Amino acid sequence: PVSHWAWDSTGWLAQTGYYKDFAGSGVVHLMGGTCAVVGCYIIGPREGRFRKDEEPLDMPGHSVPLAGLGGFILIFGFLAFNGGSQAQIAHKGDGDLVALAIVNTILG
Question: Per residue in 39-87, pLDDT tens?
């Protein structure tokens, strides 16, 4: 139902004429974020994360090289996904849009 608001020409957001959702990112992230917040509220904090007086416990360290590798893979995936959202580089101006999407991804 929420995707209908923006992606269908009869949806109320689409009918305003002001809402432009490139590759559906607005609707997807709105739903993902809302579901994450509701899920976190329902599940609550991890067991063993807080003492009985509600003070947080120290968490042991993790692997810095693996965290860096994960960040590199993530940004590479963002660039490929967002650049690929244009779906083609066959017509004049398509390359400019792909480049703009990649630059916005890096800056954002």
Answer: 999 998 888 888 888 888 887 777 999 999 999 999 999 888 888 877 7
DSSP-derived secondary structure letter, 44: -
Enter the pTM of the model: 0.54
Contact predicate 83/95, CB 8 Å: no
| Amino acid letter, 32 | G
SS3 22: helix
Taking alpha carbons only, the member of 36, 32, 37, 59 closest to residue 48 is 59
Could you tell me where the DSSP H helices lie in 1-108? 2-7, 12-16, 25-43, 64-84, 94-107
Q: At what angle do helices 64-84 and 94-107 cross, to 10 degrees?
A: 150
Write the CA distances from 44 to 27, 31, 52, integer angstroms: 26, 20, 15
